[in-house]
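Our preliminary data section would be incomplete without showing what the modeling component actually yields. Below, a chain of 339 amino acids is followed by its predicted structure, encoded as C-alpha cells that our downstream tools consume directly.
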Amino acid sequence: MSAGPDPAPGGLAGDGAWLELAVTCDPEAVEAVSEILARVAPGGVSVEPGFTLIDEGLGAVVDPAAPATVRAYLPARDAEAGRRAGREVDRALGHLQAFGLREIGELRTQVVHESDWATAWKRHVGVLRIGRGIVIRPTWRRHRRRPGDVVIAMDPGMAFGTGLHPTTRLCLAGIERWADEGLLGGGPAGAADGPPGAPHAPARLLDVGCGSGVLAIAAGLLGAGALVGVDTDPIAVEATLASARRNGVARRLRAWCGSLPSGAGPFDLVAANLIASVLVALAADLAAELRPGGRLLASGIFVDREADVRAAFEGTGLRVLRREAEGDWVALEAERPSG
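Predicted structure:
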C-alpha cells in the first residue's frame, strides 16, 4: 500500500483543495474500511457500490457481490497532516487484512481542487487508438500522427459515441474493415458494382443514431462519399454537424433530427449503433435503406439479445456475415442479398 505523493509542491495544496483517500474492497469489508477512513476524515465517508448493467446496458442496478469503493476527503492545505493520515490508514488496512476478509485494495490518494470538479473527468480521457489506424483525439489533447493514422478530433462531452464505449469501438473497427475491403471507396469492387478490379465509387453511408457523428466521420475520412446521419436527439445532431466541421467532412455530411425511413436512400452502407430492442423494431427499415448488395453494421447489442437481433435481421431477408464481440457487447455485420 502507498500513502501517495505530497499533496502539492512545497507541502501546500492551497485553498479549496482536498486530499481524496479511496479504497476499493469486497462488500464484506466495506464497513470496516469505512470506519478506518472515518478516523482521519471527520466529515465522513462515501461508499460507491458495485453495479451490474441492465436494460441492454442502458441502466444499472447495485450488485451486492461486486467490489465497492470507499472514499473520504480531508483538507489538503497541510501536506504533513495528509501524509500522517495516509500512513495511519495504510497501517490500519494492513491489520485489517490479517483477519482474512476478502479482497481489500491499496489506498489511493489524489488532490482534488474545487475548481476542477466540473472538468476533472477530462484528465482520464486520453487519445484512443482503435483497430489498426483509427485514432480518437479529445479536442483538448495533442497527438503525434503515425503514418496511416486516421485522426478524429472529438468532444466527449457533446454526445454519445466518442469511441470510448465498446459498442462504438466495435463499429469503428468494422468501418475500418470495410475500408480494407474497398467498400468505402477506391478499392476493388464487389460483384454487384462492376467487373473485378474496377475502382469503387465513393460509398454512400447512413449513420442511424449518429450521436457524436464519429462513425460517419470515420467512414468519410477513410474514403466514403456522401454521408447522412439521423438521430432522435437534436443535441446529437448538433454535435454531429460540429464534429463534421472540425474534421473537414462538413461538405459531405448531412444530419437531421429523425429516424427511419430516412428518405435519402438507398445506401451502400448503413451503421446503426443502437440497442437490441431498437434494432429489432427497425430491422425492416434498416434493410430497406440498403441497396442490393449493401452492408449493415449493427452494434449496441447486449450478448443475451443477440439471438433476437439475428432473427429480426434474417426475417427481413438480411444475411448475417460476421460477428464481433467485446465483453458483453456484440456487433453484427449483415448484407442485403443482390438477388
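DSSP finds eight helices and 16 strands in the chain. The chain has two domains: 9-118, 125-335. Preliminary results of this kind motivate Aim 1 of the renewal.
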